[in-house]
Write a structure and sequence with these properties.
The chain is an alpha/beta fold. The protein contains eleven helices and eleven strands. It has helices at 20-33, 44-50, 83-95, 107-118, 143-164, 179-188, 202-214, 231-242, 262-280, 300-305, 313-321; strands at residues 7-12, 37-41, 53-56, 100-105, 123-127, 167-172, 192-194, 220-225, 246-250, 286-291, 294-299. It has a seven-stranded mixed β-sheet, sandwiched between helices. Strands 7-8-6-9 form a four-stranded parallel β-sheet, sandwiched between helices. A hairpin with a 2-residue loop joins strand 10 and strand 11. Helix 1 (20-33) packs parallel to helix 9 (262-280), helix 5 packs across helix 6 (179-188) and helix 7 (202-214) packs across helix 8. The longest helix has 22 residues, at 143-164. It is elongated, with a radius of gyration of 22 Å. The relative contact order is 0.16.
Amino acid sequence: MAEKELRIGLLTSGGDAPGMNAVIRAVVRTAAHLGMRVYGIKTGYDGLFKGDIDEMTPDDVSGIIHRGGTILRTARCPEMMTEEGQAKAAEICKVLRLDAVVVIGGDGSFKGAESLSRQGVSVIAIPATIDLDMDCSEYTIGFDSAVNTAANAIIHIRDTSSSHERCSVVEVMGRNAGYLALWCGLTGGAEEVLIPENPIDVNSVIEQILRNRAKGKRHNLIVVAEGIGGSDELASEIERVLGIESRATVLGHLQRGGTPSGVDRMHATVMGYIAVEAIKNGELNKAVVYKDGKHKLIDLTEALATKKEYDPKMYEITKIMAI
């Protein structure tokens, strides 16, 4: 009897991250190599409900490894947060005769994948988020690209800040986690970093600037995570109290776009390959993660059960470098 031709659903969900296209490419090409069929689900779980699904071939993913964003597009899907929506999504997967669904995204996307698995749909989840806020994996696709994009912008801002002896407040993304801000602060030479895990009041920032000026520093850089916010207000308060010209810059979605770094393309390609291999071998309801220097598979429930602990060491190093 001929071996069954496996059918894989593929979607990107939640916020986009540089490198998602590289995962899509890897999944489609590995599946083609192994004799499987891949069906791209447009705009994430929302597209599953709408039936916006097309079969993908290796030609469809030609020339996308270096492209930012996701050719499958993505969207938030409130319906997937309800039990009725989850049951409906699982039923659609069964009607489409999908043997497994590969979900690329962050924590919310993983929760959606787990809900499908509870309804009897086999899934493989791949972590892709610029926030690096998933404890199940030491690396998430898109983080390196976002750090490089933000760090380059910060260096440009430092140049003009230094010329005008200003204080620059730069807000980077990170709604609930400050890892992106910490890396940007360290690589951009910030004097202070404000993150949700370690909130600092305005007076502490002002005291830091005063200490810096006493040491002869004529410009200051403050990096603020999106979850803290208030960058314009902080810059205004610094200027009001100290009389130092201050400017706020919100980098926003600039950090999500652009060509993914080589690091992101590498992890994305390997993770996409491992996901399809897992489906072939019957290792289902897993997450592809990077731990202890290796790519590996762990149970999806385990991936969601772990909570990322805040390590203050990166902040301590940032403060030492700001002396």
